[in-house]
Design goal:
2 helices; 2 strands; 10% strand; 74% helix
Length: 98
């Protein structure tokens, strides 16, 4: 419950900062891409840039998480094999070394 309230307060705070930022930065910016040129408000351009960066960050962390999950799966398999080998060796009778 406290987690949800904290999240709602954080989202409202971010929304409020966005409204203030938008009101303070009303200028226009020309954005030149390789295939087109457009003029947009600076707040929209910065918001879009933030969202694109956020999405790229999520993508890179997702790829990292997949790599870690794969490594974890491989290590669990190796552990299972090692444990079965140890249990089979423990069940063997000891032989006297003469």
């Amino acid at each position: 419950m406290l987690k949800k309230v904290g999240l709602i307060v954080l989202l409202l705070l971010i929304f409020g900062v966005m409204i203030v930022f938008t009101n303070l930065n009303t200028g226009q910016v020309e954005v030149n891409l390789a295939f087109m040129s457009t003029t947009k408000p600076i707040s929209i351009v910065l918001t879009v840039t933030l969202v694109i960066g956020w999405l790229l960050g999520i993508l890179s962390m997702g790829l990292y998480a997949l790599r870690i999950a794969n490594e974890r799966r491989i290590l669990r398999r190796a552990l299972r094999i090692s444990e079965s080998e140890i249990s089979s060796l423990r069940s063997l009778p000891l032989s006297d070394a003469d």
